[in-house]
C-alpha cells in the first residue's frame, strides 16, 4: 500500500488532482470561521446544545458545525441534496424530466442546471426561515439569539447563506470535475471527520482526570474497528445474477455469445434511507420544541428523544420504508429485463420479458430487506451505546419493564461514541468510493492498486 501511495505522487496529473481536492476542502473549512453578522455566539451555542437531537442538530452534522455557529456556510450542502432528491422523484412522475434523463449527456446537463436552480430556491427559503426563527427565539434567561432583529438582519442572512450555499455547490462541482472523488460527498465527509481530532483530545483529557479508563477506551476502539469492518464487508457485498447472451448476426458480422452478470448490491440505497429517516423523525421533535406551552406537544417531544422505544420503532420502520422506496427509484427490473430481451440476453432458467422482471424484483426485494436490517442495526447501535432504551416513560408497562430489564438495556453502556450511525456510513462509503477512483487512475497508468488481491468496489 505504501508503494501505491508513492506511485500517486509520481503521476503529475493524479498528484495535481489530489492537491486540488485538498485545497478545495481547506477553502471549505475556512468558511467555518466566517460568521453571519448580528448573531450572539454565546446564546447560539447554548441553544444548539439544548437542541442537539432535533432537526437542527441533524443538519448541523452535515454542515460540519457551520449551522450551530451560523456561518456563511450554515446551510451546508443540504439544499443541493434536497434539490437532487426532489429532481429524482419528479423524474418518476414528470414525463419531461423522464425524457431528459434518457437523452444522455445533454439531458444530464439540463437536469444539473435545474438542480442548481432548485438549490438556490431552497437556500433562499431555508435561510429566510432560519433568520425568522433566530429572531423569534430567546433562552430561558432572557438572552436573545439576535442582537438587532429586523428586516436588515433577515435580508443580510438570506444573502449571506444563499451565497455560501452556491459557493459550496461550486466547490463540490469543481472537486468532481478537476479533483478526485465525488465533490459533494467529500464536503460532507470533511464536515464529519473534522470533529475527530477534538474527540481524541477529549478522550485523552477524560483518561487523565479518571472519567474513562484506558481499558475502556481500548475496548471502544476495537469495537469501532469491528463495526467499520462489518460496514465495509456489507457495502462490498453483492448478488451476481448470471446473464447469457446468445450468438447473433449484425449485418454480415457474427457476434459470439458471452456470459456476464448483473451485480445487485445488498445495500442498493446506500446511506440515503438513513438520511431520509433521520430527517423525518427529527422534524416532529423540532416542531414540538417550538411549542413548549402545549402539553401534548411536550409529550410527543419526550417520546421522540434518543433511546425512547417509540423513537427507535419509528426510526427502524422509516429506514425499512425508505430502503424499498429508494431502491424502487434507482433500479427498475422491468427496464432491465426489456433491455436484456432487446440485446438477446437471458437469465438461465428464466424466460425473457416479464418472468425475468419478476425474478429480478423478487431477488431485489430479499436483498433490500437484508440491507434495510443492516442499515437499521448500524443506525441504532451507537444510540444504544449512548442512552440505551429508556422504557420507564412508557404508559402502563413502562415502570414494570424498567424494573425487570437489565441496566445496560435501559441506561446504555455509558460509552462515549463520537460518530452516529449515519456519520459512520457516510465516512466509510465516501472513503471506499474515493479509494476506488484513485485505484482506477493507478491501474490506467500501469501501476498496482492499493490491494494486490482483488479490487476495491464502491457503493454503487
SSE arrangement:
Blueprint: H1 2-10, H2 12-30, H3 41-50, H4 55-62, H5 66-69, H6 78-93, H7 95-101, H8 105-136, H9 151-178, H10 183-193, H11 196-209, H12 214-236, E1 238-245, E2 248-250, E3 253-255, E4 258-265, H13 272-290, H14 295-303, H15 309-330, H16 333-342, E5 345-346, H17 354-387, H18 398-404, H19 407-410, H20 421-444
Helix pairs in contact: 2-9, 2-10, 4-13, 6-7, 6-8, 7-8, 8-9, 9-10, 10-20, 12-20, 13-14, 13-15, 15-17, 16-17, 17-20
Fold and architecture overview:
There is one protein chain. The chain has 460 residues and is mainly α. It contains 20 helices and 5 strands. The chain has a 3-stranded antiparallel beta sheet. Strands 2-3 form a two-stranded antiparallel sheet. β2 and β3 form a beta hairpin. The longest helix is centred in the C-terminal third of the chain and has 34 residues. The two termini are 24 Å apart. The relative contact order is 0.10. The model has no long low-confidence stretch (mean pLDDT 78).
